[in-house]
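Section 5.1 Outputs to date
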Amino acid sequence: MKPDKDTPRGAFDLLSWRVNTVVVVTLVAVSFVAAISSTEQANSMRGMVMGLGQIGYRDPGNMGAVAFLAMWLTMMAAMMLPTIAPMVLAHHAVAHRRLEGALSTLAFVAGYLLVWSAIGLVVFAAYSVYSQWGDEAARSHWLLTLAGETLVFAGAYQFIRWKRVCAEMCRSPLAFVYIYDSRRGMRNALRAGTIYGAYCLGCCWAAMTVLVVVGLMSLVWMTILSVLFFLEKNWKHGGAVAKIAGIGLMVLGVAVLAYPPLLTGISNLS
């Protein structure tokens, strides 16, 4: 494949349409099942504080580490699996040429999800703190400032160089596989998956902090972010989409700081 053809769309030319269909349908099916589970979890947690904007209006959260991490992994599967289809296809194509089976690609996906699972520990640590804040925190100016500045930061991150580097690697699936998965074996595939997960994390982590502000289980915001990540990583105009999203998040952050009731409004979207 020529360098100018190493694109997410070009990854679909590496394998037959039957194999492409099986891989994509499998990823989408797993994502769909995870989305249904996330919807059920979100409905059961409507009265709990899951984000900064819900403090003072909902009951303190009381999820344990195991339940939280299970919820988080389900969310990540629902949100992120469709976005990595071209990379999975590229990995499977190279693995196939090395006479490796589907287990190698499954190890790659497992390594990817392992990174996002590990980040769940950080999110749980934050959740364990802010979910216990009560009415006093809700009335304080510093909580509003924290929420607004988090949104501004998430938007500003869309313009930094490291964000662009990670996004460009995500949009070059074959180059990534050749660089980081040049050897056979499931262990190497798992390692390559974790490296790809790290690049994906570098691309998306700041936007993910929006969920800490508006609620980790906000189905509306999960959907918005999923679409954003898909377009950023797989569309040829993904860089422009990232910048537009960045401007939008910064404007939203400033608006929250200027008009505090807006924080409650965007945090109570179902």
